[in-house]
Amino acid sequence: MKKVQNLSDPGVIKDILSRHGFTFSKKLGQNFLINPSVCPKIAEMGGAGEGVGVLEIGPGIGVLTHELCLRAEKVVAVELDGRLLPILAETLGEHKNLRIINADVMETDLGKLIEEEFSGLEVVVCANLPYYITSPVIMKLLGERLPISSVTTMVQREAADRLCAPLGTREAGAVTVAVNFYSEPEKLFNVSRGSFMPSPEVDSAVIKLNMREKTPEVADEGLFFRIVKSLFTMRRKTVLNALSGGMGLEKKAAEEILERAGISPQIRPERLKMEQFAAICEAYCGLMPQ
Predict the structure, then answer these.
(1) Distances (CA, A) of 91 to 4, 95, 98, 154, 290
(2) Cα 163–165–168 angle (5° rounding)?
(3) 184 with 266, same domain?
(4) 257 is in which domain, residue-wise?
């Protein structure tokens, strides 16, 4: 199969897409990464290398996939849009260590996929996620406790700042707590909107979530995340009012929970650290009937 020489050349890309009758889908949030300097950095910093299997989500036309295949032992790319399959067959046909799966990652049993495809390999995830589905995909990857070392992904720059914000700061939110519960997040570098085809209206950033070997100890994980979500829904209120309103508690009960947790009722939820959320959860379990 003829090798495509330059997948970062807009002219080459337009020719390929035109020949296959492909048009971009706004519904799927399609913005293909074409900056030639970005994909090698993602592949390197994402951990692709010998003895490593890479699960890629959303390969697009294969620009990042190509760089991953050059470095990793094996790459499995999950692509929702079936119209891209013949294009990927053309752009990536040279790589023998690649498998492309036409599936919705949100409906895919990733644990089974990893077990079947990456036996004996360290596994990392790389993705260029559409903005509309960033958080659901990230939480699926983290919450299912998959046997992966890290998740390196492109997200909207504002989302990157929020996901990687230190807990206890104004920039942090419920998703920040969730990401920090399962991983140690770091922002790698920014990516301008001109690095994509078509160009989105916002800039992006690449983040890496390094999976924790051990997650924080909490009395009830489901309750913990319910409390966190409830508190951040009313993040500008005091933690007393947020806990009472968000969890449907009498003020007296909320006061007792916070007293047992050793937390001032007057601080705001956004100032809480991981251990304080855990303390509220433990106190709640000790005082409220489940």
Answers:
(1) 6, 9, 12, 21, 55
(2) 125
(3) no
(4) 221-287
With b meaning 16 or more CB within 10 Å and e meaning fewer, what string describes 209-242?
bebeeeeeebbeeebbbebbebbbebbebbbbbb
- Report residue 213 CA to chain centroid gap: 18
Is 243 within 8 Å of 257 (Cβ atoms)? yes
Each residue's pLDDT tens digit, 126-155: 998 888 889 999 999 999 999 999 999 999
The position carrying tokens 């909207």 is 156
pLDDT in tens, 178-230: 999 999 999 999 999 988 888 888 899 999 999 999 999 999 999 999 999 99
pTM: 0.92
CATH number for 267 = 1.10.8.100
Same domain flag for 124 and 178:
yes
